[in-house]
Design goal:
188 residues
């Protein structure tokens, strides 16, 4: 497994920086998350957890203090292959992205591959459709470039049409599809 460390710089996006792909009339600060951000990240996860639990209640738990507990965030951040970025608007946390450097060894069927897998992207409802998700994805792109990793990978659930459209706007495309067969005749 490839391990990585990222410099602790803070990126500012918005009209004040002259950046041409700005958030709408806002100034977003993005920085790498630390263990002290664990409780905030846990809270930010609730909206996306709720969305998944509503769509597939037989699979996803409703958000609670245990679904993505701060202690789980701490454990993830202690693993050097994991990293998270958190975005703030005027000091208020608006979203986070959690990703991991992954390495697949070569085998008889495929070549070796290093990539970054995006596990979570969450932006609070109040701040959606304002460029915050784009800024968080951009931070992962910059991180990948510093590690000379050329591929970002993520999964998106079929029910989440809004997320799929967002990721396609960011340049992601399908390369693999997963299917299931529910043998208990429940909704699939």
């Amino acid at each position: 497994m490839t391990t990585c460390r990222y410099d602790q710089r803070i990126h500012t996006y918005g009209k004040d920086t002259g950046n041409t792909t700005t958030t709408k009339n806002t100034l977003m600060i993005v920085r790498q998350a630390t263990i002290s951000d664990a409780a905030v990240i846990s809270t930010l996860n609730a909206d996306v957890q709720y969305l998944h639990a509503q769509a597939l209640p037989e699979l996803f738990k409703s958000p609670s203090e245990n679904t993505f507990a701060a202690s789980s965030v701490v454990d993830l951040l202690k693993d050097a292959s994991n990293f998270m970025f958190i975005g703030f608007e005027k000091g208020e946390p608006v979203g986070y992205i959690y990703a991991q450097v992954m390495s697949l060894p070569e085998n008889p069927f495929r070549y070796a591959m290093d990539y970054i897998y995006i596990h979570h992207l969450a932006v609070t409802a109040k701040y959606q459709n304002q460029g915050y998700g784009t800024r968080l994805i951009e931070e992962v792109r910059l991180f990948a470039q510093t590690k000379e990793i050329l591929t970002l990978v993520l999964d998106v659930w079929s029910f989440n049409v809004k997320a799929k459209a967002f990721f396609e706007q960011q340049g992601f495309s399908n390369f693999n599809e997963r299917m299931w067969l529910r043998l208990d005749n429940s909704r699939a």
